[in-house]
Specification:
The protein is about 25% helix and about 25% strand. The protein has 13 helices and 24 strands. Helix 3 packs across helix 4.
Length: about 525
């Protein structure tokens, strides 16, 4: 992945959880797969958020099992080397409207790659102050505008290949792409990672791929979920073969730093898959040689917060927006997820409606009696949000879409909120049943009475590779092509209507005369 590094910060890698011999082996392999040089590993970017002007509730501030350690979370530092996130930090420090601090972003700029510290936990966006969250969201928007008008040249050595899961018909396409990337005709000896389930797949036949050219051995490797989560910077570029669901799976695999993702359309609809597979050779050659245009897609960070006061008579509204005692920590986090489409809180297998409380920052918005609530990103506006009656939204809009699913009321309407708000969607203590939360349709978890989910703009946007020169019309073309948006017969002009009316009158008169002649 492309990145820029400031001087003076040292990169670190955490292999302490592995046996000593395995750690040395894995560290060596990690360095050999990456396109960064040894000197580049001596630098990394530090992103530090000041803990001043704390805005979040204490119930959301707890980041460990020990509440006393919660205040120390804002003092932790995170090293990141992702090209996009380095520019976000530069954008955060620059005065608003001043883009002179981003000299690296210009036409055909080449960028280097460095490393990231894996053992230092990232600062969750729900822990940021209101000003920090606003500045972060503004930085993402400004950077997205700049990246949409330039072409980034990346030093690609390691390619991550993701194929639509459980589709045997795509294995042949995967094999074709792998053989092309590993071919000796390529100027760069690419290292290609495919899913570990293909290692012993007879249709993929990895042994025959290696046998055709023995030097390929060692350049065809296999990834699993753990590798993607812990060491995303091994990969310089992601190529997906499938539909929108495959792209969502790529977002799910890379929960923090996301390499640039180029998607070939082999699915059904294809809102996000912009490239035709039949021209994959020309597409990849151009991308690696001349650079790519990147669109930053807003992602949400969703965190499940578990109530610590079960058995007591409590009020969720009072706990989240009322006065709290000095050390009264009512909830603790139980998993955080980065999502690209939507977070849905619904009734799950329960036969009755869900009672759901919705909060925005320190304000109680409303209580909803419905089958559920869909909180969607602009990218996800054409998914479940659309089916629930929500608004269509261009992916560059900095908003959060909130739509009720079968609300038992005539007055609830979908609402659109700014991405600087931290939403909380919870189950009141007096609810008859629990609810269930899902994140991009995955990791379905039960929310018992008193539990809630925080939803905020993520610090890790999704870098989607776009076709050159088609940024503005791609989305409108997608909804017109796949959903037949505003498709109807065109109304005739008045002149055409008069002519047709006269022709119809003449035809009727002719028919009447023929009928009279018969009689």
């Amino acid at each position: 992945m492309a990145s820029f590094m400031p001087d003076g910060a040292r990169a670190q890698f955490d292999f302490s959880s592995l046996p000593s011999s395995q750690a040395r082996s894995y560290a060596d392999e990690f360095r050999s797969d990456s396109s960064a040089s040894d000197s580049e590993y001596q630098h990394a970017l530090e992103v530090v958020f000041d803990p001043e002007n704390t805005h979040r509730r204490k119930s959301s501030m707890v980041t460990t099992d020990n509440p006393k350690l919660a205040k120390r979370s804002t003092e932790k530092r995170e090293n990141t080397a992702c090209f996009v996130h380095h520019l976000l930090e530069r954008q955060r420090k620059a005065p608003k409207g001043d883009l002179s601090n981003l000299p690296e972003v210009k036409e055909d700029t080449k960028a280097d790659k460095s490393a990231v510290t894996n053992h230092v936990p990232a600062t969750n966006s729900r822990l940021l102050t209101k000003k920090q969250l606003s500045d972060m969201a503004w930085g993402v928007r400004e950077l997205s505008k700049r990246l949409g008008s330039v072409r980034l040249k990346l030093r690609v050595k390691t390619v991550f290949l993701l194929t639509k899961a459980h589709d045997e018909g795509l294995i042949g396409y995967t094999q074709e792409v792998v053989e092309w990337l590993l071919s000796k005709d390529r100027e760069t000896p690419y290292i290609v990672y495919v899913e570990n389930t293909l290692e012993h797949n007879h249709a993929f036949d990895a042994k025959s791929i290696i046998a055709k050219d023995p030097p390929r051995e060692g350049r065809l490797k296999y990834w699993n979920n753990e590798l993607c989560a812990k060491h995303p910077l091994i990969f310089d570029f992601v190529v997906t073969l499938g539909g929108d669901g495959t792209l969502l799976y790529a977002s799910w695999l890379f929960q923090r730093v996301v390499p640039p993702v180029l998607s070939f359309a082999l699915g059904s609809l294809g809102f996000l898959t912009k490239f035709d597979y039949s021209g994959f050779r020309e597409t990849l050659t151009t991308a690696f040689k001349d650079g790519v245009t990147v669109s930053l897609r807003l992602r949400f960070e969703g965190t499940v917060m578990r109530s610590q006061t079960k058995g007591k008579k409590r009020d969720l509204v009072e706990e989240l927006i009322g006065l709290e005692a000095e050390n009264d920590y009512t909830h603790k986090p139980d998993g955080s997820y980065e999502i690209l489409n939507d977070i849905v809180v619904d009734r799950g297998p329960n036969p009755t409606m869900s009672a759901i409380e919705i909060f925005g920052d320190d304000e109680h918005f409303t209580t909803v009696q419905a089958d559920g609530i869909c909180v969607a990103t602009p990218t996800g506006s054409t998914a479940y949000n659309l089916a629930a009656g929500g608004s269509l939204c261009h992916p560059e809009n900095p908003v959060i879409l909130v739509t009720a699913i079968c609300a038992h009321t005539l007055s609830f309407r979908p609402i659109i909120l700014p991405d600087t708000i931290v939403l909380r969607v919870g189950v009141p203590y007096d609810a008859r049943t629990s609810s269930w939360a899902s994140f991009d349709g995955r990791e379905r978890v039960e929310l018992c009475p008193g539990d809630y989910v925080t939803i905020s703009a993520s610090r890790y946007p999704f870098a989607n590779v776009m076709q050159q020169g088609r940024r503005s019309e791609d989305w409108v073309n997608s909804i017109s092509r796949t959903l037949n948006w505003n498709s109807r017969q065109r109304q005739k002009s008045f002149k055409e209507w008069v002519v047709d009316e006269q022709e119809g009158r003449n035809q009727r008169e002719s028919e009447d005369e023929r009928e009279k002649g018969k009689t």
